[in-house]
Model the fold of this input.
Amino acid sequence: MEPSSSEFLRGTLKTIVLKLLAEQGRMYGYEITQSVKERTQGEIVLTFGALYPVLHKLEQDGLLITESEEADGRLRKYYSLTPQGSQTAIQKVSEFERFVEAMRTLLHLQPTLSVHPPVSYPTT
Amino acid sequence: MKALDRQQIGILYDYLVRNCSDTRLARELLDHLACEVEHYMWIGLPFDKAFEKVQLDVDTQAIRQLQQTYHHELADADQLQTATLDDIVFENRNKAYGAYDLRQSYTIAMRNALILTIGLFLMLMALLVAMKERTWSYTSLSGIMWLVGLCATTFAGGNWYWQNIRQKLLTPEQY
Done:
């Protein structure tokens, strides 16, 4: 994770995880990091140190349920959304989209503002 | 994708358990690490090299940090749900000093004191009425007041005594 993007990522990690699970249904930790990496072409890389606390927090809040299955000689923990989790996912994604929209207008205002000549104060 | 054999998974698990005291966390990270090692092996690295490469990402510090995050976000949340205000106030303070115990027993002590006061008051009233009328009957109003007062006093006194004994049993010897 790049230091510059990690700052933005911290607040959106929950949304990312919920959105992915809403689309895929059932995923395990490594699968989530790989999926994020693939979709963003390596732009966003989730470290396990960032991902697992979020997963466990969501599980504790009752948004996710887990099932453990044995795969290749080890236990694999799959996460999926609860009904409450699906609702939260929809809500979080729409909230985030509104936020991104607001950020975009905010960032695009900048050039038009800088066109104006600098204010000159009268000297008395 | 190339799957790790049992022995290789064992090596990974040993590495995790050495760095991570929480076995539940270690078991979940095991799958994550194993997947990453498999990925590097699939690219063409031998197991040792792949494991070394994964260790660069998953160093001891990262695991420790993860564990701390766990304690903050999960354990505290668990405790907070059951914690009373006293627990929160005395979180980082000396509980053995005595103030914590006093606060803990405050409600019971208060209840006992209230019942004791009411009981004694009823008995006193009954006694005064009896002295004034110079007759005594358990079925009269004053008689019933006396009985109720006696019961309340006994209950409160007994409860107080029992609480004292229990506290002495629960408190470990300090000297």
